[in-house]
Amino acid sequence: MAEPKGAVYLRAGGAEQFRKDTAKRFARRVNKTLLKIDDALPRYAAIPRDERSLRTQALLALVALCDHWLRDKQTKIDQHESFRAAAVQDLHEAAVAELRGLQNWAKAKTAIRKLIPKGSLKGHGAAPIRLMQQENWLEVLDTHHRRGQELKKHFLMWEASGQSCSFWEYLEKLDPVSKKELAEVSVRYVDDLIYRALFEVTFDNGLMRSRMSPVVQNMILSRFPRATVFANADEKLLDTSTWPSNALRGVSTGWAAFVLSPQEVLYAGMHVSGLFHHSSFLCGAPVLASGMLRVENGRIRGIHEKNGHYRSQDIHLMTFLKLLQRKLPGTDWHDVEYITFGGTPMTVGQKLNLPRRPAVPSRANRGQLSSAVASQQPVQQGNVRNLINRFNRG
């Protein structure tokens, strides 16, 4: 397959070529989006080839910038009045192609197999991985990814029926009502790796950041045009305060589902029963940990062990907590709520058996000054006043 025409813009020196191809003769460049592209291209070319995560983020930014420029100039493009459009479209095509080259699903599955060979139970840094519960394996094998727990019920009925047809043929012969009920719990898998990157959570100066929001996730699930999704997917401090949280009994908002991949990449999004579950992020692949988290303005506020598809155990969640300790320095873990799968509340500090920070005594509790020191105060103030008066008289 031939290399996209705009691939030259992504290489060393490509920024100069892009400026040349989009420059008006004797005119100063003023378009803000083009200036951002000018700045982003050399920074992308300087990223080492093995820094896959950084390259992915840079390419996502370039795609978003190209989408923004093309959308703003759509009228001129339709009327064939924009000489720059061809170069911007070529760059957009090349960036998308390079993203797919980095992150297509087939290569991702191959990478997982290499990372976790058959018989291995270790992930990044020899941390133990967690496979999906066996009852959910049917969900992965099903082309419609209908939820595992419902498929298991039908699987047991198929076994008991003694029918000679395959399980999948058996499902096709179900009565219309049962087929409809099963279709209503089809879990969406994020097999588009470009969209998956939008669910990624990054860490910056002790804060958590993401491009994901309920608006962006609903657009992805509703199959909005890619340009529309990226136009709304600005990176900002993660805040789950208003996120629907129907996965937790008695809780309506404030929590997000998360999984930690074997490569220690954290993904978070809305848990939507029957539609978007912990299995959605990595299409049922193994994880280091999974559960629920609560974040306010970039600061971690709570962690819940709730995760039905994987049922991460204590050893897996400890891997996640230790990663947070490394990524979020300065956090007082005794102020972060931790709730077990059974609903027992505690703090992360208690979970990790961390010592409490020494309390800073308030001014009200420091007591009064000793009489000797207190008696000196008026004298010192009086001396200062005398010196000022003498200076003024002189």
Automatic annotation (TrEMBL):
Location of region: Disordered: 356-378
Q: Bias regions of kind Low complexity — which residues?
A: 368-378
Q: Where in the cell is it found?
A: Cytoplasm
Keywords in alphabetical order: Cytoplasm
Cytoplasm as a keyword of this entry, yes or no, is yes
User: What is the name attached to this protein's record?
Assistant: Uncharacterized protein
The record lists the organism as: Bosea massiliensis
